[in-house]
Amino acid sequence: MKYLLICNKTDPFIRDLFQALNEKGFESSIFQINGFKLISQKKSKNLNPKTSLNFLKNTPKLKVFWKIFAIKEILHNLQFDHAIFFFYNWTLKLPISSLKKDKKFSFYLDNPIKIDTNILKKSQKIILTSNCDIESFKKLYKKDFSNKTISIPKIVNFDSLTKIKESIKQNRIYCDIQDIDNVEDFVKKIENLEYEFIFPLVGESFERREKIKSILKNSKINYKLFNNFLSLEENFRLILSSKKVIALSNPKYLNIIQLSLFANKIPLVFEKYLCFFSKNKFHFDTINNTNDTTEKLFLNKTENTTNRVKSIEEFSKKAVIEKLTDALEKK
User: Fold this and answer.
1) Cross-strand partners of 44
2) pLDDT tens for each residue of 158-176
3) Number of neighbouring beta carbons within 10 Å of residue 48
4) Per-position DSSP letters for 94-131, written without gaps between them
5) What is the pLDDT at residue 12?
6) Which domains does the chain have, with CATH numbers?
């Protein structure tokens, strides 16, 4: 089976899938529409399609029509069995509709978006990264596409973490609070706890980052801030060496909860986020709001030996690719 991954721009998520598909023995390539670039296992090259609308290529207001026909021409000439689209907009309607009958196509979407119903009917699968997104996707349509929708999480590359030895647990809490609006109230609730709090501020806006710094500076809390980018390995080391993990931020965009599970932790999370994970598979401590945070921090356990095994089964490169290929090849 030859897979063609079609995206606006290549990101780490798509690169992980691309590499994992090739490692699994599936011949795959990436067609990056932004810049018309074809990325294969061995090389990358820029594509220069010839169409009847080439005269519009350098006309800013009309260039989009050339682009539509250029994408159509490229898809007509590339060798693949199954195309996976990682985005959808109106410019793709003609190219997708013009695919040869022997070509299959599916969507792998980071967000539930509106897709032309006729195109959805012809697609093999609509893959979303969480059960939350599947529910949102269903609400967009009158027709039921549940026979096509499937939830497959993003890859977390655990391979690089297996060599990291268990750190000495320190009296600290790893604390990711990007979804908390009232940081000041949250800090007041935890400032009497005798822990050092680790705050990774990566992903926070500059204004909010400065506000958090100011709140912490004026509090009684013992804390440490991380402003710079933290690699997967650095995050994992911090989580391993912490007694507890607060992960009150959207797990769709961060892998803090997945890393915590791999570290055999029981993270404290918002109950609304449990739909991102297989039901009853993992051990969590949950809250509906931050009012009961302090009580939960004292009561929750710090480890569960099944969380690591289950996280590998759910989020590892091997697990995600097996779920993906099983879904795509199922008739």
Assistant:
1) 39
2) 988 988 887 788 899 999 9
3) 9
4) HHHHTS-TT-EEEEEESS-----HHHHHH-S-EEESSH
5) 86
6) 2-155+316-329 (3.40.50.2000), 158-313 (3.40.50.2000)
